[in-house]
């Protein structure tokens, strides 16, 4: 046997075989040659990783296919490492959609959970891998109902502020008010200051009175973690906030209206001065005629914009009196 040379499946100090190294580094031709000489695809390293785990982690779809379909020992796609992760976990976490597609075609079990009770869908949602999320829920829509008390894909996506993933999950039929020991997805989004995700969840009709395992509502959580985002989210929950964009648009529109009317007023003043009107006559003319017209024009313009909020700004802030005082 000494003349036969080294074993093709001998390992280094990390438990890597030559096939591990070739798969990890993307050497497709070497992978094929090693398999030709009966290298095993089912040898795990010291952490339980098989060559297919490493190829999936790297996102090398060609090598993943080779490991599955070539050689004397076809790679078992559901093999788990020491953290109970399959190759599908590795590919989903890093957003390697082509590898995910191949593994799903090879009937990899997407319901397998790792040591943290995370499925591949959970990891894709957690890291915002939108394309992978779409692929998995299309192939296995029932996964959205296979949740634990620890988390759901919706909770994980909300926690990290992945708006697009949250929307996809909700559009696919996931219950917006599903609960874990941490409460609803709204608890997660609010706790981590994800304002835009909070907006999406509120628009979808999430129950804001849901409590976590300690009996706390979302508002209770926000009180314990005061910050600018917490105040903004609390205002949203209480229905007292307008979107920043809306407020900026309203302010810009009204400032433009006020500026235009002031310009007209100054022109009128200049004309009156040239005609040598007395101050009393000028004041009477402006108060009875021009400012009344200014108020009317402003309100009509704001009504045309379709925004009741803008109209309220005009009536409540007293701009008419302020303009006259200025003059």
TrEMBL record:
Gene3D superfamilies the record matches: Ankyrin repeat-containing domain
Keywords: ANK repeat, Repeat
GO BP: ephrin receptor signaling pathway
PROSITE patterns noted in UniProt: ANK_REP_REGION, ANK_REPEAT
Each ANK repeat, start to end: 14-46, 47-79, 83-115, 149-181, 181-213
Keyword Repeat on entry: yes
One GO location term (cellular component): cytosol
Top-level taxon in the UniProt lineage: Eukaryota
InterPro entries membership: ANKS1/Caskin, Ankyrin_rpt, Ankyrin_rpt-contain_sf
Keyword Repeat assigned: yes
GO molecular function: ephrin receptor binding
Record's protein name: Ankyrin repeat and sterile alpha motif domain containing 1B
Species annotation: Serinus canaria
Organism ancestry: Eukaryota, Metazoa, Chordata, Craniata, Vertebrata
